[in-house]
Design a protein that fits this description.
- With about 220 residues, the protein is α/β, with parallel strands linked by helices.
- The protein has a single domain, classed as Vaccinia Virus protein VP39 (Rossmann fold, 3-Layer(aba) Sandwich), CATH 3.40.50.
- About 35% of the residues lie in helices and about 25% in strands.
- The chain has a 7-stranded mixed β-sheet with strand order 3-2-1-4-5-7-6.
- The longest helix is centred in the last third of the chain and has 17 residues, at about 140-160.
- The radius of gyration is 16 Å and the shape is globular.
- The structure holds S-adenosylmethionine.
- S-adenosylmethionine binds near residues 62, 64, 89, 106 and 110.
């Protein structure tokens, strides 16, 4: 399994994340990114070409050093300058109220303690700052959802900890990706949640949202 995670998984991840089906949802999610930006779960750097022209620098974190062989060359040739750190989203070393935008694509599904991570994202966002996220989640189609449940243990082992069924069960309801900001991160800010994109990738549902941190 170790060999798989160190040598095979990074290639599979880069291949999957490079799929053109994600281009439009990535662009929609990142279109609003502005000011001081933090990207959570940078992966192999597949968001870089999709930042809007006004963005010239971001900070980015990802704990997986095995992805460096893909991410570092992309950083080196990117129009957007990247200050990259190997870090977990659950423990961010940044000051509170310090980012205008936090970006997170296809990553909330993989973060072990996602509720804690969302709390950290909330902490580092400036009041009025925006959390832009793109996630897949449990399908509303019962037949698809049943298959997601069946395949979840395999996906979890082979897919770097990715959950196909986040959004299920009591704890899941608090972190249903498409409404994570609304229910967990910014409970009092429902009116400020904007859906940016709803779609499907094969059978999985995909949603992009923007949540604003309440101004005091
Ligand atoms: C499916 S990949 C998505 C990568 C990238 N965001 C993209 O859209 O191409 C999930 C990423 O989450 C990262 N990840 C896993 N646990 C994490 C954590 N605790 N904090 C931050 N990122 C994490 C993984 O290393 C991986 O790069």
């Amino acid at each position: 399994m170790c060999l798989y995670h160190h040598c095979v998984f990074p290639y599979l991840l880069d291949l999957a994340m490079g799929s053109r089906v994600f281009d439009k949802p990535r662009r929609r999610t990142l279109a609003r990114a502005s000011g001081r930006i933090l990207e959570i779960g940078f992966g192999t750097g597949r968001n870089l070409p999709h930042y809007p022209p006004g963005v010239s620098r971001i900070e980015a974190i990802d704990p997986d050093t095995d992805l460096d062989r893909f991410s570092l060359p992309r950083i080196a040739t990117s129009r957007v300058a990247v200050d990259f750190h190997h870090l977990n989203a659950e423990h961010l070393p940044f000051a509170g109220d310090s980012f205008d935008s936090v970006v997170c694509t296809l990553t909330l599904c993989s973060i072990p303690d996602v509720v804690h991570a969302l709390g950290e994202i909330h902490r580092v966002l400036k009041p009025g700052g925006q959390f832009l996220f793109l996630e897949h989640g449990l399908s509303p189609d019962a037949r698809v959802a049943r298959w997601q449940h069946r395949l979840n243990p395999i996906q979890n082992r082979l897919g770097g900890g990715c959950h196909l069924i986040r959004g299920d069960g009591a704890a899941g309801r608090r972190i249903r990706p498409a409404s994570a900001g609304c229910r967990t991160l910014l409970p009092a800010a429902r009116a400020q949640i904007r859906r940016l994109h709803d779609g499907r990738v094969r059978v999985e549902v995909l949603s992009a949202c923007c949540c604003r941190k309440k101004t005091h």
